[in-house]
Design a protein that fits this description.
binds manganese (II) ion, about 400 residues, binds (2R)-2,3-dihydroxypropyl phosphate, about 35% helix, alpha/beta
């Protein structure tokens, strides 16, 4: 009800945004947002059999804001949760996908905000069926003007694998649609080839499989390598067409590719011990924000996918106060605020809290639960407020 709406409003209003020199550096630019399917942070600058897994991304981060401590906050909604978090600034649901369960809500989405501020046109591109994850319905609620899906692509048996059209033809064909959009635009691209169980044809294999005891991990490096190539192809094409300069690019992994079940293969690959500290590190996803002409910088601030939206808005020169989001600008985020996971676990400046056990963050030693209690309280509060907003459809009272 409306009282709950006011409670949420009060909490969210204390999330301050602080000024920085970067405010507005990308004002008015087109935005190209790319989700890197199943891409975990460890692939960046990682070599397998002496070869880089992501040579293009490794180069790109040298001229980008590269955030190397960003955590996957998705739950059962997988890709759709990653989309939900970025677009709404809310946490995903504890079970199921908000895309499927709450498409009729009022949302103050990133797309709405951009439309209101600079008349951005919002489009989304994905090679799978329109209705997957209920995207057709949810994208309307989020204010997308156009949704290019499978039916808008020339999809053949030759150019498809696993869930659909391969990433290279996907980007190639997308450019033709992108060219037609009115500017400035916000364009989201969901890649697909690097999806479990990581299948790839010989002709697309650019790197040898890894050599661990876990086939999933071995194949994963080849599909990540292919994804890297597809991004390179896309950038080249945009440069050729003069569509690169005036665009800010955001690339982010949507969630893990190697689930816990296969993690021992990852430990083998990286020659690391299977322990809580490394397990948490594997939950990191790469976040790259590339503004052409802007000098590169690696930012070690701890954060989550929920922090992407205010960070982008900051660069676009849009104030984030009063936008009902749980995210914090990564350029100013306080490390003492925990990164919150949907199951109530978290990672803070000094602790990891997982499955009701509190660990020291640096050494992974179990410590008394009392050390995690204060942050745990914040975690419960944020998740509850976010759930209230979603289940109570509270933004209908707050957003005109
Ligand atoms: C399918 C794509 C991948 O359209 O979103 O699915 P997911 O990663 O959510 O399993
Ligand atoms: Mn996914």
């Amino acid at each position: 009800n409306e009282t709950d709406a006011v409670t949420s409003q009060k909490y969210l209003q204390q999330i301050d945004s602080k000024p920085t020199d970067l405010f507005g550096i990308a004002e008015g630019k087109n935005v190209v947002f790319i989700t890197l399917e199943s891409t975990q942070g460890f692939v960046i600058n990682q070599k397998v059999n002496g070869e880089e897994v992501t040579p293009f991304l490794n180069d790109l981060i040298k001229d980008s804001f590269y955030f190397n401590q960003i955590y996957d906050q998705t739950a059962q909604g997988k890709t759709s949760d990653a989309e939900f978090i970025v677009d709404t600034g809310l946490y995903p649901l504890a079970s199921g996908s908000a895309f499927v369960r709450r498409p009729e809500n009022t949302y103050l989405s990133l797309q709405h905000i951009l439309k209101q501020n600079n008349d951005y046109y919002a489009a989304t591109f994905h090679g799978n069926d329109r209705t997957f994850w209920n995207r057709d319905q949810m994208y309307e609620a989020l204010g997308y003007d156009t949704y290019f899906s499978k039916k808008d692509y020339n999809v053949t048996e030759e150019n498809s694998i696993n869930y659909g059209i391969k990433d290279i033809p996907f980007f190639n064909q997308s450019v033709d649609h992108l060219e037609e959009l009115s500017e400035p635009y916000y364009a989201k691209f969901l890649t697909l080839t690097n999806h479990f169980p990581f299948l790839l044809e010989e002709e697309d294999t650019l790197i040898d499989e890894a050599d661990t005891e876990v086939g999933v991990v071995n194949r994963y490096v080849t599909t990540v390598r292919y994804l890297d190539k597809s991004i390179e192809t896309f950038f080249e094409k945009l440069k050729e067409k003069g569509m690169y300069e005036d665009t800010v690019f955001i690339l982010v992994g949507d969630h893990y590719g190697i689930s816990k079940k296969y993690e021992q293969g990852l430990s083998e690959l990286l020659e690391e011990q299977p322990n809580i500290v490394n397990h948490m590190n594997y939950q990191q996803v790469p976040l790259i924000i590339h503004v052409p002409g802007q000098e590169g910088q690696t930012i070690e601030t701890q954060g989550g996918q929920i922090d992407i939206r205010p960070t982008l808005l900051h660069l676009l020169g849009i104030e984030t106060d009063g936008l009902y989001s749980f995210g914090r600008n990564l350029f100013t985020r306080d490390n003492d605020h925990p990164v919150i996971f949907r199951d109530g676990s978290f990672i803070s400046e000094d602790y990891i809290y997982k499955d009701n056990v509190c660990y020291g963050k640096e050494n992974g030693q179990e410590v008394d639960n009392q050390y995690c209690e204060p942050d745990s309280e914040i975690v419960r509060q944020e998740l509850e407020l976010s759930d209230n907003i979603i289940f109570g459809d509270l933004l209908r009272f707050l957003v005109e």
